[in-house]
Design goal:
Two copies of one chain form a homodimer. Chain A is an alpha/beta fold. Helix content of chain A is about 45%, strand content about 15%. In chain A, the strands form three sheets. An eight-stranded mixed β-sheet of chain A has the order 2-9-8-7-6-3-4-5, sandwiched between helices. The longest helix of chain A is centred in the C-terminal third of the chain and has 27 residues. At the A-B interface, helix 1, helix 3, helix 4, helix 8 and helix 9 of A face helix 1, helix 3, helix 4, helix 8 and helix 9 of B.
Chain lengths: ~375, ~375
């Protein structure tokens, strides 16, 4: 053990690095938005969101504006969706593991959350069939592109099989796609909305594409659902954060988003590669898939290692902070899973972080013997 | 009946007029906030709110920062407060009439809402005693200054009597004070927090003092409650709208708020006076109190007039849109009550609006005979 002070490294949540936040452009866009739309942006507004932004996003998606709602981040829109559509005691199916905040949102509403096992190319259709048969879920929540927390992208055959099950079961499928446009390799897979337009609600956000502090997310559904969600949004906060919506509108309208995505891909791609290389080198006994985009690599620790124990050893002995993995599992059993976010660290820090993780794994396994 | 086209006048919600929104200053403050704090404002952040703003507001209130939470408007903070403190089926006492969105928030949480009759100088303590005896409410929600929807300010003797009941009943009193600093005449009455510090939660917002579209409100409570609220806020939206909080911080820090309040008082005072004069002139058979600040005059229509019928005649015959009064009454019976917001119309429009209202009242009463 060394007495040298080492700066703590966080491998916790999916946070963009400071250098990814386009501060100067946001300032310009904000000035311009206030000059053009100040009286609207500073006033009360219908909870459907800033109309020019809503129209722009709807146009990009090829839908009418009444199919789209802009709110304060997508997790709250998921909450409104479930609040409007489901009743306490209803069952929601999620991937296992899944995005922890989605599970919290569903449980806050008194919903029962049931997991569907993930395979390397997406949720196992047979497991979903089984959940449908046993629990009759009303909704399936999925992150099909560069999933949080595993990094897995669901393959087209899997999407087709799952869409088929969802169609037959007359469920709603929610595809949450905040990472979809952050692809560093390979080809886009068609979204569920193309496979099953009448049963799919899409959620996304500008947190990973522009800046999380703006809190701008959107939902694409059918007009009746959008109306219901807007009513619940109005009850919750009257009006969404308008200034940030004005900024996002200007940012997209001026074409900065495309440039920014280019910058982000160039920034994050070598970080992902560094993470995969470091895992190869330091944790050859672990298992992971190689994501083609997004923010996360999901690691399965070697047999005999316990995620909670590794996190504890990492924190206490090696200046490494990991997420509480149990939150990703609806049953609370994290088994050997560790989520590794790679965007907020540079290549050198990633190498150091994974080396520390490997030492924590070794020590935790020795302790366990 | 005239065929001349008359522009519709809205006397619905408490909306500030466009000329009250300090657009240029918001632009300056936003640029400055981003230059100074861009990396924080564009990033994820603890749900307690932008730390410099939190500290500034806490200092102004004479409390430590851990007693204060800044969120996306005060109605959602009321929701988090009740969500954290109460359970479905619990009873909440409110003034009758009260702010309609507060009733909606409580009911969304499955709470039972019971009204306490309002007198000209605040809620009737005997009625509150009775509600306490019969329903054991856990919380009393009150808007003590220039109440929404009546304009009533609760007198000091009433506040003392109510504080005494709340103390003995071991309840929490929530005082919602968004209008408190918009006083156009008379003297401030001590807030409940001074009378009963350990049982009072204060809520307020910058919607009426600066701009509603920013969605910045705050709650002042004790640290454990603030912690619980922040946890629920994090579950709901992860991070509040940071850009707007940066703007509000700069606006307050630079001293613009004091100037803006001066401007608003000078703008709104003659509008209140015009409203009272027009009521005297056109509706001498109605009853109202003369508020000394805020956004609203609460009108009780002459005997025999029905609020819903008057609203219908106003809308169909006179180009006048009123609020649905039933929302202000927990029992849904609006009786003869009409809320008249006076800030968004100039003096001439107010005169026209009240003249139309008086004609609608006359016609509704004739119909009713």
């Amino acid at each position: 053990m060394t007495t040298e002070v080492q700066p703590v490294i966080k491998l916790t949540r999916g946070v963009p690095p400071a250098e990814a936040l386009p501060c100067a452009l946001v300032k310009d866009c904000c000035a311009r938005a206030l000059a053009q739309h100040g009286e609207v942006l500073l006033q009360y507004h219908p909870a459907t969101g800033f109309t020019p932004l809503r129209e722009l996003l709807a146009e990009e998606a090829g839908v009418s504006a009444d199919s789209l709602l802009v709110g304060n981040g997508s997790i709250q829109l998921l909450f409104f969706l479930a609040q409007g559509m489901l009743s306490p005691g209803d069952v929601v199916a999620v991937e296992r593991p899944t995005y922890d905040r989605a599970v919290t949102a569903f449980r806050t509403l008194g919903l029962e959350v049931v997991g569907v096992a993930m395979e390397n190319d997406g949720p196992d259709p047979a497991a979903l069939e089984d959940v449908v048969r046993r629990h009759s879920p009303r909704l399936l929540y999925t992150v099909p592109d560069f999933q949080n927390p595993t990094g897995i992208t669901t393959s087209l055959p899997k999407r087709e099989a799952i869409a088929d099950i969802v169609r037959r079961a007359d469920m709603v499928l929610v595809e949450d796609i905040p990472y979809r446009r952050l692809r560093y390799a390979g080809e886009d897979v068609p979204p569920y909305r193309e496979l099953l337009p009448r049963q799919v609600v899409q959620l996304s956000s500008f947190s990973k594409l522009l800046a999380p502090g703006l809190r701008v997310g959107w939902a694409l559904a059918w007009p009746e659902v959008v109306r219901d969600m807007a009513k619940l949004a109005e009850d919750a906060y009257i009006t969404p954060g308008m200034l940030a919506q004005g900024v996002v509108y200007e940012f997209v309208r001026r074409g900065h988003l495309a440039d920014n995505l280019h910058t982000l891909r160039n920034l994050y791609k070598p970080r992902l590669e560094a993470m995969l290389k470091a895992l190869d080198e330091h944790l050859p006994r672990g298992r992971w898939i190689s994501p083609q985009g997004g923010f996360f690599v999901g690691l399965t620790l070697p047999c005999g290692a316990d995620a909670a124990r590794v996190a504890e050893v990492g924190r206490k002995q090696h200046g490494l902070v990991l997420s509480d993995s149990s939150g990703f599992f609806p049953d609370g059993d994290p088994s050997r899973f560790v989520r590794l976010p790679f965007c907020a660290l540079d290549e050198e820090e990633i190498e150091v972080a994974v080396a520390r993780l490997a030492r924590a794994v070794d020590e935790a396994m020795e302790d366990g013997r």
